[in-house]
């Protein structure tokens, strides 16, 4: 199947090229900077942002968070079913 986006620069507004399951980990980052996160089961998220700041916040079920994230921390994260939008 042809990819209609193959010759275009990928804008931050989408579409993402992939949706990657995330395992929260205090030592290992994503290996890329996600342009957004999708959370199936709400709770608290503790993340390292694209700016290198550690932030914690509460999200509801089926949330889409349009924030650049390099790492989802295990400590402090109670949300589940986390996926990263990858460009």
Automatic annotation (TrEMBL):
Q: Which domain of life is it from?
A: Bacteria
Name the UniProt record assigns to this protein: Uncharacterized protein
The organism of origin for this protein: Meinhardsimonia xiamenensis
Starting at the broadest rank, the lineage of the source organism is: Bacteria, Pseudomonadati, Pseudomonadota, Alphaproteobacteria, Rhodobacterales
